[in-house]
Amino acid sequence: MTFWLDLGGVTALSDGRFPARQSASLPTAIWIGRVLSGIVVVLLFADAVAQLVSLPMLRADVEAIGFPFALSPVVGAITMTCVVLYANSRTALLGAIMLTGFLGGAICLHLRLGEIGSPPQIISMMLGVMTWGGLYLREPRLRTLLPLRA
């Protein structure tokens, strides 16, 4: 038997196997998730725009990591695609997976350059954690699929 349960503006589906339970902190968790996701979207959107327009001040940094500056718009387009997918609630899971791959590549790039624990590497790692943390907190279906239990 399947039924819908309204949890203070958040509708959850319960089919008996995964009962929809009301948590006192559910609205708070959703808002924290939205804020985390918003921070990820804003930071990566700004980075994508900077790469797309090939800001001259990025030239030295891009070339220092071994990429030709001419590829900057391509990297910006990839970043923008990932961000748009993540920001859309219907495609947020796909966007999170793609952002994880993108940020994982950035972490590996800095590892290859011998920059273990460098600020760009730590920022990439934190953005990855915030990407999944934000999605987990704002998406009830993901919490049902991957429950955290004490």
What descriptive keywords fit this protein?
150 residues, mainly alpha, two-stranded antiparallel sheet, 6 helices, 2 strands
What does this molecule look like?
With 150 residues, this protein is mainly alpha-helical. Helices cover 64% and strands 7% of the residues. It has 6 helices and 2 strands. It has helices spanning 26-52, 59-64, 72-87, 92-112, 119-138, 140-145, and strands spanning 3-7, 10-14. The protein has a two-stranded antiparallel ribbon. Strand 1 (3-7) and strand 2 (10-14) form a beta hairpin. Helix 1 packs antiparallel against helix 3, helix 1 crosses helix 5 (119-138) and helix 4 (92-112) packs antiparallel against helix 5 (119-138). 17% of the residues are buried.
Q: Could you tell me the radius of gyration in angstroms? A: 19 Å
Oligomer: single chain
The residue fraction in helices comes out at 55-70%
The low-confidence runs, each spanning 5 or more residues with pLDDT under 50, are 1-14
Which shape, going by the Cα principal axes? Answer: elongated
Give the averaged pLDDT, no decimals: 84
- Secondary-structure class: mainly alpha
Distance between the termini: 28 Å
Query: What's the story with the biggest beta sheet?
Result: 2 strands, antiparallel
Question: What is the tally of helical segments?
Answer: 6
Q: DSSP strand (E) fraction?
A: 5-15%
Q: Name the helix and strand elements from N-terminus to C-terminus, one letter apiece.
A: EEHHHHHH
The tally of beta strands, per DSSP, is 2
Strand order of the largest sheet: 1-2
